[in-house]
Amino acid sequence: MTAGEDRSFDWRRGGAAAVGLFATLVLLGMVVLVAFTNSARDKALDAERHAYDVTLLTRTMDASIARAEAALGRYALDEQRKTGSRYYGQWRLAEQQLRQLEKSVSANSDQSLRVTELRRLFDQRGQQFSNVARYVVSKQKNYGINYYYSISLPEAGQKDDVGTKLRAKLSEIATAERDALSAKIKETQFFSAEADRLTDYLSWLGVIVGLFAIFMGVVAVQALRQNAASRREAESEAERAQQLEAAVRDRTQELWQANQALKLEAEERQAAEAQLRQVQKMEAVGQLTGGIAHDFNNMLAVVVGGIDLARRRLNGPRREVMTHLTNAMEGATRAAALTRRLLSFARSEPLLPERLDSAKLVGGMSELLDRTLGERITVRTELANDGWPVFVDPHQLENAILNLAVNARDAMDGTGTLTIRSRNLKMTANQVGDIRAGEYLCIDVVDTGCGMTPEVKERAFEPFFTTKEVGKGTGLGLSQIFGFAHQSGGEVGIESVVGQGTTVSIYLPRTEAAASNVRTHPAMQAKSDEELMVPGARILLVEDDPRVRTATVGALEDLGYEPIACASGSEALALFDSMEFDLVISDVIMPEMTGPEMVREIKSRRHDIAVLFVTGYVGEGEGDDLIGYDLLRKPFTVSTLAAAVATALARNPSESRPIGGAAAAG
User: Where is the Histidine kinase domain (predicted)?
Assistant: First the structure.
């Protein structure tokens, strides 16, 4: 081989090596690009699964919130506990889904910020729903329904609607996931397009290598073999990609089935929890009933024993007979007081508000608090001398303060300091709960007990919720105080620190009513029987119970009146048309025609007739008809009856409002 041929061979060998090296580099590039493309595709599939999970969570959470809102609306309308339990279960399910959503987006800082904002809106919405439930529980149906519509159907243009913001935030989270997925898909498509373009270049390279194979056969054949191997590998990768897509579809189906099973399990758990709550409520009612029965049996034992002993000793010493009769009367009085408290708790007794000086009322409770709480509790009072007057039922306010004091004693395990203070405050709208802007007298009951955790504080006003041991509480006290404060136009607030104590504040609106223009209960007037009597007055007594009717007639005759009794409203109307009367005394709840219905007819015939209602229970819807009239609660003594009759007879007829339109308007 000559030097020229040797150089030509070296050139061909070097050229073949260069072409082979170039083809090898291109092939390696294609392999790397295919591997990179597969990796990008895997990431896109992972992103697609993640976006699907997040989108599914946002949709299911939105649906759970909608179902909770719908159940709450039904609960506000029908006031059924079953409906309330359905609302509570749907809302808890939405909270579980929110926690899953927080876990799913924890790796994405932007999405985490959005979910944090979603959590804030969710808590605000939950507070609004809880307020509606509390209004319904406190028998403020109309207020609860109006509040529900105000949060569920906001006015056009309202910017602070929490429900709209909550749904918008859910949509924003789902949209962000879809946008991220779209960007990932575009990136994958870009690399796939680049791979296809390089494949085209590789085909041209094959043509060039084929032409160049005329003088570099061995190198060209090797290049063709490598090209064929690359094609087979690409086909294998395509088959693997198809298998991967099928696996993704199977996994997605498995996830859907798992999600359905989780929903079914959640529904079963909700049903079990609802049943458990119902059992707990029935246990609480049983405990309350047992305690009431125990107290009544003790009181009846005193009454029956005293009367029986007095009857056996009628021929004995007068002092001994009077002692037994006095004991029986005290037992009956205690039973009547307990009955009034039970009616007050059931909100079946109409409020009798009057202008009150809080300092005098709380100061007068000192002996009662000391006797109730025991010697180990130190009671302190810090009452404002210039405390604003309020217009509330004194008995209800006293009962609320006593209830809070007993709760404080239990929180302090019977040892500690209880402080009752009053102060004047100017409140802005919604500063505490749903309070309206204005001037309020705040009564604080402060203890040094164990305090409340945030979870307990959040549920403190829920009916039947209690942290006390079995037999020591039914969870109804704070709910009753909440209802009393709202009925009086005020609000209740709680501040508590675990290990330091709790402060419960009752906010009552300041009143401008003059003391002389406010009606007081006849039983609270301090007059002698001689001063109260108006002898000779003719009284129409309407009472369906013959024993009560006989006893009342006897008492009125002893007081010097001329009573004429009947058993029904129709008989009363006939008597009223046949003769003149100075006063009508009527029971409230009677068959065929109620007392307010009868008085409405009497007022249409003679508007200036004096009226005195006597009742032991006021049915639902009857309380408003009693506004503006004197009311005497059963049982009553002769002295109390004398005070009530004299007050009704002495009242200026213009002060009594007719039942019906005027009363409803008030």
Answer: 291-512
Residue 450 half-sphere exposure toward CB, CA atoms < 13 A = 14
Query: Which domain-ending residue is among 234, 252, 279?
Result: 279
Q: Is residue 553 classed as helix, strand or coil in its secondary structure?
A: helix
Distance separating alpha carbons of residues 23 and 387, to the nearest angstrom? 98
What length does the chain have? 666
HEC readout, 213-241: CCCCHHHHHHHHHHHHHHHHHHHHHHHHH
3-state secondary structure of 526: coil
CA–CA distance, 339 with 348 (Å, rounded to integer): 11
Share of the chain above pLDDT 70, in %: 73
Of 464, 45, 33, the C-alpha closest to 244 is 45
pLDDT band at 441 (very low <50, low <70, confident <90, very high): very high
Q: Which runs of E-coded beta strand occur in 306-402?
A: 354-356, 377-382, 390-392
- Find out whether 556 and 583 touch, Cβ atoms under 8 Å: no
| Assigned domain for 578 exists | yes
Dihedral (C-alpha) 236, 242, 245, 246: value to the nearest 10 degrees?
A: -120
Q: How many domains does the chain have?
A: 3
Long-range contacts of residues 489-497, Cβ cutoff 8 Å, at least 24 apart: 489/436, 490/435, 490/440, 491/432, 491/433, 491/434, 491/435, 492/433, 492/461, 493/432, 493/433, 494/452, 494/457, 494/460, 496/451, 496/452, 496/457, 497/451
Beta bridge partners of residue 583, listed in sequence order: 539, 610
pTM: 0.39
Q: Are residues 417 and 531 in the same domain?
A: no
pLDDT digits (tens, 9 = 90+) for 59-91: 888 888 888 888 888 888 888 888 888 888 889
Strand order in the sheet with 630-633: 562-566, 538-542, 583-587, 610-615, 630-633
Out of 491, 516, 541, a domain closes at: 516
127 & 272 share domain: yes
**Owner of token pair 């009497």:** 602
The domain that contains 383 carries what CATH number?
A: 3.30.565.10
| Omega prior to 596 cis, within 30 of 0 | no
Share of the chain above pLDDT 90, in %: 13
- The SS3 call for residue 377 is strand
416's CB contacts (< 8 A; 6+ apart) are 377, 378, 408, 447, 448, 449
User: 10 Å Cβ neighbour count for 201?
Assistant: 12
Contact indicator for 482, 502 with CB cutoff of 8 Å: no
Question: In this structure, what CATH number is given to the domain that contains residue 533?
Answer: 3.40.50.2300
Q: How many CB atoms lie within 10 A of CB 570?
A: 13
Pairing outcome for strands 416-427 and 562-566: unpaired
Is residue 623 domain-resident?
Answer: yes
Which token pair is 527? 């007059």
Start-end of H helices in 559-637:
569-578, 595-605
